[in-house]
Structures are given as C-alpha cells and as structure tokens.
Amino acid sequence: MPVLTLALVVAGCRSPRPLAAEADQAVQRHLAMAQAAVLGKESPSAFTIERPSDTLRRRLILEQALPTRDGAPPTPSSPAVRAEPMEIALTEALQIAAFNSREYQNQKESVFSAALALDREADAFHHSLAGAINTLLSGERGEGVESLKGTAEAGVTLTRKLEAGATLTSHLALDVARLLTGSRDSSLGLSLDASISIPLLRGAGRAVTREPLTQAERRLLYALRRFERFKQEFAVRLVSEYLSVLQQGQTVRNAAANLERVREAHARALKLAEAGRVPNLQVDQARQDLLRAESRLNAVRQSFESRLDGFKITLGLPPDARLTLRESELTALATEETPETPAFAPPPEAEAIRLAFQHRLDLQNVADAVEDARRAVRLAEDALRAGLTLKGNVATSDRAEGTDWSAARELSLDVRRHRWSVGLGYEAPWERTTARNQYRESLMALDRAQREYEEAEDRVKTEIRNGLRTLAEAREAVRIQTLSLDVARSRVASVQLYLQAGRAEMRDLLEAQDALVSAQDALVSALVNRRLAELQLQRDTGLFRVTTEGLEFHYETP
C-alpha cells in the first residue's frame, strides 16, 4: 500500500514547465506533418510562438530613450541612447514585422492552438493512465454499540480507445479496512478488473470513431493554410504601407521644391512690378500661390508623419521611435527590370486562373470543407441506426486479514479464480427526432458547402481578371504619367522663356509649375500602383511564398 500510494503521489507532482515543454514537442510533431502536407516540405526551423526577449521594440525604447508607462527610459545623455534615426529597408521591414507585429503573433498562436487541439484528440487513442487515492472515516453508534472504521483505497485505471471503436478499461485497486474500536480487526484487499465495449451497429467502424481526430487534423491544416495566406496578404499590405510612406515623403519633397519655385516666381513678379513690366494683380496672384504652396507643404508633412506612425504600429514598434525608410526603394520602382529584379511577366488569363486553382490555399480550404460536409452526412446517417454493443468483463480479487507486510504477501491475483460476464446491449431506433433533424441539417450543410465552393471559384476568377486588368492599367498609367511629366517640365521651361520675352503672364508660370508638381506626384503614385498591382496578382495566383523565418519574398514566375 505505501509503495502504490507513493507512486501515485510522485506521479502527480510534476512541474508545469516540463509539461509545457512536452506540449511544445507534441505540437512540433503535428506541425511538421501539416507543413509537409500544405507546403510540400517541412519547415527548416521549428514553429515557435515565443517572441525573442530582445525585440527591436525593446531595443528602440532603450536606445532612443522612449517613454513607457512601466518604467523610465534611459536619459538622453546616456551613452547607450541612439541619437540618429534607424533606417530600414523593405526586406528588413518584412523581417521586423515577423518578430514584432502583434497581428502576426496572433496568427501564429492560432495555428499553435489548432495543433494543441489535435494533440488532445490524438491522446484519446493512446493509453490513458489515471491514479486515485480515497480515504474514508465512518462511525456507528446506538444501543450501547459504538464503532469507528477507517478505509483507504489506492487504484490505477488504464484506458485505451481503439480506432475500430472498441474501448478497453482495466482497473487495479488496493484497499485497506481497519476497525479503530473494539477488536480493531483489519483487512487488506487487492482487485483487478478488465472490461471491453465494442459497438456493432451505430458508432462502429474506424471512420466514425476517428471522426473527432480527423476533424482536428483538418482544422490544423486549415489553420496552417490560413496562416500562410495571411502571410501573403500581410506581406503585400506591408509593402503597400512602406511604399505609401515613401510616396508621401516624395510628395513632401515635391511640395518643398514647388514652394521654392513659387517663391522665386513671387520675387520675380515683385521685380517686374517695380520695373512697371507687370501689373500688381499678377504680384497678388503670385502671393496667393505662395501661400497655397506653404499650406500644401504643411498638410503633406502632417500626412507623411501620420502614415509613418501608422506603419510603425503595423511593424509592432512604438510610433515615437525614430525610423527612416530607404528612399532608394522608391527610386528603384522607376526601373521596371534589372538583373536583380526581372520584370514580372503576367501569365495569360486562363493560365493565371489555373495557377490560382492550384496554389490558392484559401480555395483549398473551401474545397476540403465540401468533403467535411460529406463526412458529416455519413455520420448523421450512422446516428439513425440502431445501437448494438457487445460488452465483456473479467474480474478477480483477493483479501487477507491484517494490514502488515505478511498480510500483503499473502495477496495474489489468481486468474483461475475470476468472475466474467458477456452480453449484448440493444437500443431500438424508434425515437430519432433529433438524429433525423440533424441528418436533414447535414444535407443542407453539404449543399451550402458546395455553393460556397462554387462562389469561391468564381471569386478567384474575378480577382484574377481584375488583377490582370489593374496591372495593365497601372503599366499604361506609368507610361502616360512619364510623358505627362516630360510635357510639364517642357511647359515650365517654355513659359519662363516667354515670360522673359514679355509674351506670357505670371499666371501662366504659376499654372505651369502647379501642373509640374501634380505630374511629379502622379508619376510616383503610378509607379507605386504598378508594383502593388504586380504583387497583388502574384498573391492572388499564389505565385510567391513567405518563409516562416521572417517575411521574405520568393517569387515563382510562371
């Protein structure tokens, strides 16, 4: 008895941390198989949800002395404080987001939770070992009789559920009974009990028994596909925000350059008015344009700062962190093809749709949901059957007087002395209202899943067709805006010559300069839109993957 009790107590006193490590190992096994099924190969590194302790957010708070609610940062005079802003390239921004973005972390944890749920379902088909110790003190008093009795029982139960549907259960128990009054009689008992339950009709078969495990496996696949799809969409969104900030920064520079040009025009108008060559009306017009240019510069600067702060939040960094984006990422957009980044050649429409049907992970989830609905119909049909269960039990026990070691040595479990039973349990399928209605619901769910799949197919086709049209329009817009910028520059130069010759008015120059800054902004916008259209089409056709070691693009051109 003490040995069994000690074993039960020790087994129940494990530290939580090793158990968490065991859960992580089980998750890694399930994820490795799921990644092989989804990506065609296992991930080169483990799927972890722990964020690094030394995140960029924390380093920036310390290095740039940023205020926090939990504690005071280093003083600006500290030698550890970084004075200059940190510049990040586009690829660096993608990698930073993988380790700092809260949205990205939430998506990873959803996959991890699905793997934990699968491990719980898989555990139902493993040996389940449970131990328990029960003690009881009881007494009786009446008509001059008084007794006090103490009992204790320690037991171990082993359960195993087979995929064919059978459930095996065995129970080993040791009990002690002692009278604490009177003769103080005591006894020691040992028992072994084994039973089996096998469904023969309803609930029988591997498909029915494994359905909870099958659903958990598929939910993990769905979660992993959603995560991979999220990474594609998140990467495109991150690039869009990065380029949007750079575009707004270029707008600020264009507005600043335009302000200088308007100042020069205003100064020229003043000199010409003093010489009597232009009326004061044109000076007032130049003054009004100067004020508008100053107002526009202030507005675009505020917009730039707001977009940069929003981008920092997307990365998971403090909005007051001093960061700059690499301006060369924007100038590189003007070159459509380089040896390092060849131009993306979009496939024909039919080929693009075929690639999307083959690679789109969200479409695969919708397609598999139809198969899930078919299995649900088969399970609902099974629930309409009669219940027939074969049950068997074998038990043996022994008891000895006393509770000392000599009494324990006398105990034995002789299998030749046993009790057994076998029988059938039948449940007639008479009242099946709930099962009948669930079966009808499953049929409607199957039709609904099929309609959702058809809709998803049509939606993918629409996205591909729109993506191809958007890309063609974006490339044509770059061509048009490039010509428009050339015309605007030529117009400014011509008006300046005409103004010097007295054949143009100040208003003509101001309008030409305003058209120039608009053309400059429009070209930058067209370049950004072209790059985003390319990425969105690649995303919608599933032509690039994002690795789990940060968000790095791997283009797969057709």
The count of strands amounts to 10
Order of helices and strands: HHHEHHEEEEHHHEHHHEHEHHEE
Fraction of residues in helices? 55-70%
For the biggest β-sheet, the strand order reads 2-3-4-5-7-8
Distance between the termini: 72 Å
- Taken from the alpha-carbon principal axes, the silhouette is elongated
Strand content: 15-25%
Radius of gyration: 38 Å
Low-confidence parts? 554-558
Main pleated-sheet profile: 6 strands, antiparallel
Structural class given helices, strands, pairing? alpha+beta
Compute the number of helices: 14
Give the overall pLDDT as a whole number.
85
Q: What is the fold's blueprint, element by element?
A:
Layout: H1 2-11, H2 16-39, H3 56-63, E1 86-88, H4 90-100, H5 102-123, E2 128-142, E3 145-161, E4 167-179, E5 186-199, H6 206-209, H7 211-274, H8 280-315, E6 323-325, H9 328-331, H10 349-359, H11 361-383, E7 387-401, H12 405-410, E8 419-427, H13 433-500, H14 506-541, E9 544-546, E10 553-555
Parallel strand pairs: 1-6
Antiparallel strand pairs: 2-3, 3-4, 4-5, 5-7, 7-8, 9-10
Helix pairs in contact: 2-5, 2-7, 5-7, 7-8, 7-11, 7-14, 10-13, 11-13, 13-14
What do these coordinates show?
- The chain is of the alpha+beta class.
- 59% of the residues lie in helices and 17% in strands.
- The chain has 14 helices and ten strands.
- Strand 2 and strand 3 (145-161) form a beta hairpin.
- Helix 10 packs across helix 13.
- It is elongated, with a radius of gyration of 38 Å.
- The two termini are 72 Å apart.
- Mean pLDDT is 85; it is low at 554-558.
